[in-house]
Design goal:
Layout lengths: L6 E4 L16 H13 L3 E3 L1 H8 L9 E8 L3 H12 L5 E4 L24 H9 L3 E4 L12 H19 L5 E3 L7 H9 L4 E6 L12 E5 L6 H8 L6 H29 L1
Parallel strand pairs: 1-3, 1-8, 2-3, 3-4, 4-5, 6-7, 7-8
Length: 267
């Protein structure tokens, strides 16, 4: 069995008539992608199952794939869940708890909801259908720019709210914007998470950092041939290589900004 596992990252499942986001995948394209995975012998597992397997606590099928969704858009329940169920697939949804449609008003500093988001009832129904619900912070900030107390709050509030409603442990989270860093990962571990997903646009392996599992971005522009090559680990598209170069360059800027913010708070 190939030890490398593709972890796919989706956001919205919606057409251009509904959203201008380039990260939104049209429902027909999403259905074709899931059908292609099933037709090629992939079996979907949750991110928690993958992390547990690589920790020696679970087993994996012959050809595993992890399908993840960030933010908690309502179209997951409407457009993605039926397609996944049709093929007997599971997935992991990383929910921003402060954006939940019927959540209490978030803190004033919270970013506004980007679109219609999942309600608590839809989250519970998704969990009941075998979907893993995991955390994506409370207000979707840039975690590596927060002071320690703010960072700890973002991580703990989202985890505890989900666990209280779901009645099960929430072992995983995904970093908003994909940004982390050594300090953020230490805080994630201290908050009780056993795994965390970044972006990185690479194939995950047992050697990957459990608190920075790489994922592969699926966009509106992702063509069927590109999708097939990516999930089989045959080629990293040029757009991913460009993304990684930009991410590395911006990481330097972000580390400098974090240091300056720390000095400003200390001054």
């Amino acid at each position: 069995m190939n030890p490398r596992v593709p972890i796919l990252m989706y956001h919205e499942v919606a057409g251009p008539e509904d959203t201008a986001s380039p990260l939104a995948v049209p429902p027909a394209s999403f259905a074709d992608q899931i059908a292609a995975l099933a037709g090629n012998g992939f079996t979907a597992v949750t991110a928690a199952t993958l992390a547990a397997a690589w920790a020696g606590q679970a087993s994996l099928p012959h050809r595993p794939v992890v399908i993840t969704f960030d933010d908690g858009f309502a179209d997951f329940h409407q457009a993605a869940l039926p397609v996944l169920a049709e093929h007997g697939f599971t997935a992991t949804v990383f929910v921003t708890t402060g954006w939940i449609e019927d959540a209490r008003t978030a803190a004033p500093a919270a970013r506004p909801r980007p679109a219609r988001m999942l309600s608590w009832q839809q989250i519970l129904e998704s969990a009941g259908a075998g979907i893993e619900i995991a955390a994506h912070s409370h207000t979707h900030p840039q975690l590596d720019q927060l002071p320690p107390a703010g960072l700890a709050g973002e991580l703990s509030i989202s985890k505890h709210q989900l666990e209280d409603r779901l009645g099960v442990p929430v072992p995983g989270m995904a970093y908003p914007f994909g940004y982390s860093g050594a300090g953020v990962r230490r805080a994630v571990r201290a908050a009780g998470y056993r795994y965390a997903c970044a972006v990185a646009n690479g194939i995950a392996s047992p050697h990957s950092d459990r608190l920075a599992l790489p994922r592969l971005t699926v966009r509106r522009s992702t063509r069927p041939g590109t999708f097939a090559r990516v999930v089989h680990g045959q080629q990293v598209p040029l757009i991913y290589a460009r993304d990684r170069s930009l991410t590395k360059g911006y990481a330097v800027v972000r580390r400098t900004r974090a240091v300056l913010n720390g000095l400003s708070r200390a001054g």
